[in-house]
Every structure is written in C-alpha cells, then in structure tokens.
Amino acid sequence: MILIDNFDQVAAQIETERGISKEALVFAVEQALVSACRKKFSDEALLEAKIDLLSGEAKIFQTKKIVKKVEDPILEIELKEAKTLSDNAKVGEDIEFEVTPNDFGRLAAQTAKQVIIQRIREAEKNVIFKEFKDKVGRIVIGTVQRVENKNYLINLGRAEAILSPKDQIPSEKFLPKEKIRLYVVGIDKNARGSAIHVSRTHSGLLKELVTMEVPEIQDGIIEIVNIARDPGYRSKIAVKTNNPSIGAVGTCVGPMGGRIQAITKELGKERIDVLEWDQDPKLFIASALKPSKISDIVITSEKDKTAIVVVPNDQFSLAIGKGGSNVRLAVRLTGWRLDVLSEEDYSKKENKIREKNHVSIIDRIKMENEKLKQEAKSQQEAEQRQAMKSIQDQEDTVESVKVSDLAKVLGMKTKELIEKAEKFGVEIKSVRSILDSDQVNLIKENIK
To answer: 306 - beta bridge partners?
Structure first.
C-alpha cells in the first residue's frame, strides 16, 4: 500500500489554481505509480494503479487470464491459484489482484513525483492551448512583467507571451505592471509548452479595435473590406455600407472624429484614414490615394491589375507620401500595382502609354469577337442537328418536311433554297410550304 497524504486537498487546490480537473490529476498519478513499479514487473504485464481520493491510499493491481494450464505466466494464471484469490474464479475469465511492492520506498516515490510533475505540466499545456486557441484573431489584455533584450514578457493570466521587437509599434514604450492590448496571431504547441504569438503591429489589431469602437460593424451594417497598415505611422481602412441610408466613413470616424481618435490614441498616435470601398477600380484607387487629387487613371492591364495614376504636378509629393508611404499603402489596400506620374511626366509618355493600352484593348476586342463567332457557330450547329432530327421525325410520320427546316440542315437561307430548287424543277410557293419526301430527296441530291 502507498499512502499519499492530503491527496484530495492537493487535487482540489491544483484544480482551482491550475485549472486541471481532479480526474486528470488522478489519472496522471496512477500512471506515474505504474511507471514507478514497472521495473519490478515484465513490460508485458497488465498493471493498473487505483487511488482512493478520501484516504489517499494507492494500490497496484495486475490482471491475468484464468486458464487450466499456464503457457504464459506473465499474462495467465492457473485456476487452482486463482481460487486462492477469489472463490468465484472461472476458466476464461480475467482476475485482478493486488501486487503493490513491499519495498516501494523513496526511489519509487521520487520516480512517481517526477512523472506527476511532468503530467501536470502536460495537462497545463493542454488547458492553455485550448483556452487561447479560441482567442486567435481576437484582442486580449496582458500585463507587462519585465523587459529582456527589447522583448516584453507579458502575463496573460494562466500563460505568458513574448512581445518581440518586430511585433512592437516603434514609438511605444511600456513599463512593468502596465496593462496593454494585444492581438493573438496564433498559438503553437511544442515540447516546451504552448507558444502564444501576440502582436501590436498586425492589421488584425486595428480591425478588432475598429470593430469594438463601431457598433454598426458588429451589427453587420458596415463591413471592413480591407486594411493596409504601416504600424505607428499611418493606416488606411476601406469600408462599405450595407444600408444606403448610413454612411460608412462618417459612422466609423464618429462625431467630431471621436471614434477614430480613440483608436489612434491606443496605437501610439498612428494616423488612420477611413475611405469608401468601391467596386469600380478607378474610383477605389482614387479614394485610396487621398488626400492627393487625381487627374486621370489609366488601367494598363485588368488581368495583372496594373494602372497608371496621373496627378497634378503640385500633388505628386502628396500622392507618393513621406517615404512612399501613401502610394505603398494604396497598393496594399487596393491590390493594384500603381505607377504614379505627374501630369508633366505623363504628357511626355502619353502617346506610348495610350498606344500600348490601345493595342491591349484591340486584342481584347478580337478575342471577344472570336468568342462570339465560336458561340454563333456552335449555336448554328445545334440548330442544324435539331432541324435534322425534326426532318427525320417528320419523314417517319407524315413523309413531309418544312422548307425552313430543310434550309437549316443544308446550311442555307430559306429564300436561297427556294431559288435553287426552282432551277431543277421543284416549285416552292412560299417559305411556309411543306415538301414531300420525293421533293426533299431531289433537293438533297442536287444541292451539295
């Protein structure tokens, strides 16, 4: 017998503090005790540990099959011996009996302790993984514990995470015990535990903050279509409304810009531009490049999503932005590759650009015409097949055929068929005339 003092109280405390259920803990301890006893038994022996939660008493049991003649002493027991353990023993049944070692002392207890600690850690990993798996793509609040080599160690309650430099907004500095909002990018389960990846530079953080600040987004009245972000400096958000009576941009910005200002403050004074999404690429591109004015947008390739944006000479720097930030964010937001030119530069290259774009348009027109011709040909062939079937049906029934159906089969206009038929003695009075089988055969023989 092995006695574990105050086991029930310890299990209850661990369940409260670590979130590990008593059942999981008992299972871990039982497995640990079996592992500790395994050295005294064969690897094939069927062992099981049982713990009484109230008394803390633990026992090791072995299971064997009752047989008339023992062939495998590790897994089998003779009926006569089994009767000494249980009066109800029968051949073919399994019998369970206690085999707790008498010298199960310090070494075994130490082994059990190590395995118990390991199982508890594994159970904690599973609890943490399950908890934060549901928080991926959401915002959590963490407390800064300390700073190590520019990395912030963040306390998330039951778990810890590291906010690395690449996930930090450049202008931000935090102090120990300061509470911050973090976006959970993902969670990886490894041998050392669950590694939680958190960030303050991810575009998902901005999306979640806007969603929290704007109830209309939560209700589905307004949608965030896309976000392009340069963390700590500038961001662009494309939104659209599902209710024409509610303006998407004004609703997101809020009265006196209150809603967007709250988000800007949270993100270290990051400038946030909210703009209207449009399915017309030209309008969307023009909106994405605001506050710059746009003179013209030339779509050079719809397939490759490339375009030339022409801006007034005095607006070129504004369109590009500081360090190219404005055009870079516009490219990421729209998904189009943009070449921004001033009106002066564009006028020098206009003929070449227009010629190139014109050629591509001509090619597209040719392809479209070819496609229409092919469709018309397919339709004509289908009509001919239908007309042939109609003729065959008519020949099988009344031995007569409509002039229009015969014309379709022969690939001719009805009027042309009438004129040719008259030349070899078949008189057709009108386009609605009915031809008998002899007339049909005569026309087929002479018109090839």
So the answer is: 301, 337
Peptide bond connecting 291 to the previous residue in cis, omega within 30 degrees of 0:
yes
Burial of 214 (0-12, 13-18, 19+ CB in 10 A): buried
**Topology given in CATH for the domain delimited by 278-382:** GMP Synthetase; Chain A, domain 3 (3.30.300)
Phi, psi of 155 (to 5 degrees): -90, 120
What pLDDT score does 153 carry? 94
Average pLDDT of the segment spanning 103-109: 62
Fold of 2-129: N Utilization Substance Protein A; Chain:P; domain 4 (3.30.1480)
Provide Rg for the chain, Cα atoms. Answer: 41
Q: What does residue 267 show for φ and ψ, rounded to 5 degrees? A: -105, 30
Specify the residue for token string 């490219």.
Answer: 331
In whole angstroms, give the CA distance from residue 153 to residue 161. Answer: 6
| Helix ranges restricted to H, 139-257 | 203-213, 215-218, 248-253
Residues 6+ apart with CB under 8 A from 39: none
Using alpha carbons, list the distances in angstroms from residue 314 to 237, 319, 326: 26, 10, 16
Where do we find the tokens 């990993």?
125
Write the single-letter amino acid at 45. A
What's the pLDDT tens digit per position in 219-233? 999 999 999 999 999
Q: Which residue has the higher pLDDT, 30 or 282?
A: 282
Cβ–Cβ < 8 Å for 175, 126: no
Q: How far apart are CA 155 and CA 167, in angstroms?
A: 16
**C-alpha to C-alpha distance for 135 and 124, rounded to whole angstroms:** 17
Helix or strand run (H / E) with residue 332: helix 325-334
